[in-house]
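Page header: ASSEMBLY MODEL / two components / 661 residues total.
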Amino acid sequence: MTPELFAEHYRQHLPAIAKFLARRVDSPDIEDLCSDVFIKAFEKKHLAPEGFELAWLYSIAGHLVANHRRKLTTATRLFSALSVTNYAPSAESLAVADLTLAQAWQKLKPSEQNLLALVALDGASVTEAAKILGISPNAVSVRLNRARTKLASFMEVSE
Amino acid sequence: MKEFDSPRQNIDMKIEERLRQADPARNAEVLDEGLVLKAAKLADARRLAGDVSEASWITRNPRRLTLGLSGLVTATALATAFVVVLPGSEANKPLPSSTNSIASGGQLPTLPEPISYSNFGQYISPEYNSSSQALAVPNVVAGVALMTKNVDFSPSKSILKLRPSFATIYKVTSNETVLDTGKKLAELFALEQPLRISKPGRFGSTTATVGSIPSTPTLPGIGQPNSPSYRSVAVTGSKNGISWVYGNSRAMAWRPCKSGDSMNKNVSIISRGGSKGHTSCQALPSGLGPTSTEALDRAKQLFQGLGYQTGTTVASTPEGGLYLVAQGFGEQIEGRLTYYLGTVSGFLKIGGQVTTLAQKVFFTSSSKQIVSAQGFIGNAKPVYTSILKSPAIAARQISVYDQGPDSMQLIDLKNPGSYIRIDYSTSIKKAPNGNPVPHNAKTKTIYISKFHLVPGVIQGTDGSTWLIPTYEFTDGGGYLGAVKGIPRALLLNQDASTAQNQ
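Prediction written out in full:
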């Protein structure tokens, strides 16, 4: 596939990927990371699952966000890099609009934040989320329900 | 999903709604869509800078059958602007193709933008375009044409396994001026008259002419009995390429008809015409033309005067030289040309391969003189590497009529002036023939099992000429079709009429 054909197929996903990144990294880094996502996607284009290209791009973007955060953390706190496993939006980014939600969000596990963000913010379906996270759709449904319940209970307590 | 049916749904949706309202990306900056293409090109360039393998171009099997439509072949050969590559100032030494620069296509940059090309070249009129397509219809009125709606080409398992490779694209550019070429040709054809040069025109092209130019447009080589006599050279071109044509109506030795003249016996052509009430008859006698050896020698002399080295076998043809092929010379009258027109074509050998890029010299049966010639002057240089379509994808793009955007016409090396169309696959030969197949007939799938990668010629709308890797497919039993090897996205097809309107 030529770069032109690739761009023809994938440019439709650019807004979604840009928003995905905007939820997770600072504004100055969005464009660079977005470019990295499509560079990586072109390099691995033969691995793209047909019909799930956006989910596949989310998966790539997620890894890049994790790496990006790891680099930032490494720059300030040596040896803490391996602890970074979450690439969901931070509570701080949500707090601007909803402080209660942000406080409850902070109490969720990183994996629960990831899953909720993928479905509620990034618009991924259960099947797509399963592809992105590499788990079964059933597991996604169960964990999603659990995360929603926990977030709701945390918010009830907060409110 | 099951959990959405539970009473928790409303609460869940409320939470998700609150999450959406708090979405940090609600007012995110909109990025330029060009980012995706830039990223892909960057990744592609990085990849090419690493491990790149280049496909080798395999010499085609020259075994081909002629079309057998002599009139069509002649008209097509005369009117089609075939192009030729010349070493130019590097006469008597190999083209750069003999150096590593041609072999190392992987080191070249990738194609940065589409090649704007025309099926018929910029100098061919739309009228010719349409008429030649009409003339070409008999080419395919065979079994395969009649069953085209029921033929499906499919790659065999062995082809499906093959991955896309990379290959080099060559561009032909001139390395001398139109004026210099005109002087050289005037000397070679012994035209001792002043050279005229035009002002720059379209695409910055100029035209140099020498000799007596007919006042009315006449196809070179087809001298009519009552047309004005002329002998001239016209050279036209720009930095993108130079083409030339020579015509000599005096080489057509017409004489009045005699009783008993017959095209089946002693003359090649009888032309009847004249004003109302007065019928004249002119005969073009046959058997006075050169032998094929004489014609080859004359063509060799001409090409060498233009700076080529030549050979009459592929092995003996030097790199950058011309592989000479003579065709159409009968043997009924002491080996002399008995057919109306005989042709000597010089096919460029580049990268170790004989391409379909050719220049031509035509002789008639009535004179040993050259009746017409045409060619192109320039250097073929490797300019790009391109990833190819996979053989399987290309195999599915075969067009029976050779008119699809992916199709490619290859010139038959053994029969200059004719396209490879008739040496059909054994699978096609077994197909229904003679009557159109009903539309509801069962589709016949032909499995393509073999291919060669050969250099095919396309002409840019700016007068440039390109050699692009081309798949030539067979199913083991015969020729099936040729498909452009580089992806469609890298080719911008503009036919002659479109180009002229720009």
